[in-house]
Amino acid sequence: MGRILIIGAGGQLGTVLTNQLKEWYGEDQVIASDLRNNGSFTGHFELIDATDYQRIEEVVQQYQVEEIYHLAAILSANGEKNPLGTWDMNMKTLFNVLEVSRLNGVKKVFYPSSIAVFGSEVVKQNTPQASFLNPSTVYGMSKAAGENWAQYYFQKYGLDVRSLRYPGVIGYQSLPGGGTTDYAVDIFHRAVEGTHYTCFLEADTTLPMIYMEDAIRATIALMQAPAESIKTRMSYNLAGMSFSPKEIAAVIQKTYPDFTISYAPDFRQQIASSWPQSIDDSPARSDWGWKPMYDLESMAADMIKQLKKEYILFE
Ligand code: AKB
Question: Which InterPro entries does the record associate with it (predicted)?
Fold first, then answer.
C-alpha cells in the first residue's frame, strides 16, 4: 500500500487520527503535516500550508502518497470572525487537495464535513442525511459546497473521495479550536481541575456529539470499506449521542458534586440554535456497518478517567 498523508495533523482530530493510522499501517506509512510542528509527532513530519498547491504536490510526489486525509479548515465560530477569509481558506485548500490528488495518482481522499451544513430548513430531531442544506455559517457553507465538489471529482474523474458529517467531537487527547461545540471538551477540563465553568451556550441547547474513539473508528471504517458499499459521494451523517450543557453538567456532578456551571451565551448561541439536535445516521449503519460505542455516561466516565491522569501529572 502507498503512503498516507494527513493535512492538518496537529488539530483536534488529526492528532489522534495520525496515531491511529500509524498503529494500523505502521509508522513509516504515515506522513503527518501541518503549518507548524508542535513537536508531538514521531516519524515523518512535513510542514505544509495547504493553500500552497506546489508544496502539497512536492510532498505527495516525494513520499508517493496514495491516500490523503484533508483535515485543515477554519471552524464555525472562528469562521464568523472573517467570513471571506474563511471561505477562501476552506475552499482553496480543498481544491488544492483534489487537484493534486487527481493529477498525481492519489487513490483515496478523506474530506471531513460537519453538522454545520444543516440550517433552518431541516427537522431538528433525527435530521436525515438527504436534507435540504441551508447552512447559517461560512464554515457550513464551505462544507456544503465541499461535499458537492467531492461528489463532482468522483463522478467526473473517478477520484475516490469519502466524507463524514461530524457532530461535535469530544476527546481528552487534544483540544478543539474555534468551534461551537468546543464547550463540551472545555467543561471536562474545568471539572477535573476543580474550577467553575462559564458556558457560552444556554443550558438547554441540545447538540449532536461523538466521542473521539468513535469518531476515529468511523473515519477509518469508512476509508477501509469496499468502494461498492459507499452509496453517497456527498457525505455520510454520523451520530454518537446528543445532550445539552445542563445534561452534561449533571453527569459530571455525579463524580464531582461540587462542580458548578453558569451560562453566558455569546454569538455562538445563534450558530448552535441553527443546528440539528440529533442526527439520523442510518445510511452509514446500513452501507458500511457503522455503530457508535459510547453514550453520554460512558463517554463522560472515560473523559474524567483519562483527564485525571493528565491533571495529576501537573499537580
Ligand atoms: C464546530 O463546532 O464548528 C465543529 C463542527 C460541529 O463541525 N466542531
Answer: Epimerase_deHydtase, NAD(P)-bd_dom_sf, NAD(P)_epim/dehydratase
pLDDT on residue 194: 96
Q: Give the Å distances, CA to CA, from 204 to 269, 277, 304.
A: 11, 11, 22
Cell of 285: 449503519
Q: Whose CA is nearest to atom 1 of ligand 1?
A: 179
Task: Give the other-Cβ count within 10 Å of 11's Cβ.
Answer: 22
Report the C-alpha gap between 299 and 315 in whole angstroms: 24
The edge-to-edge listing of strands for the beta sheet with 160-166 is 44-47, 30-34, 3-7, 65-70, 108-114, 160-166, 236-237
Burial string for 49-82 (b: 16+ CB within 10 Å, else e) reads: ebeeeebbbebbeebebbbbbbbbbbbbbbbbee
Q: Which atom of ligand 1 is nearest to the CA of 169?
A: 8
What's the rounded mean pLDDT across residues 297-303? 98
19: which 3 cell numbers?
496515531
- Mean pLDDT in residue range 59-74: 98
The ranges assigned to domains in the chain are 3-167+211-237, 170-207+240-280+293-314
Pick the CATH number of 170-207+240-280+293-314 from 3.30.70, 1.20.120, 3.90.25, 3.30.1370: 3.90.25
The answer to whether 139 is a known catalytic residue is yes
167 Cα–ligand 1 center, Å: 7
In this structure, are residues 165 and 126 in contact, taking their beta carbons and an 8 Å threshold?
A: no
Is the pTM above the cut of 0.90? yes
Nearest-CA residue for ligand 1 atom 4 is: 179
CATH topology of domain 3-167+211-237: Rossmann fold (3.40.50)
Render pLDDT for 5-48 as a digit per residue (tens, 0 to 9). 999 999 999 999 999 999 999 999 999 999 999 888 889 999 99
Residue in 276, 274, 279, 278 with CA at minimum distance from that of residue 136: 274
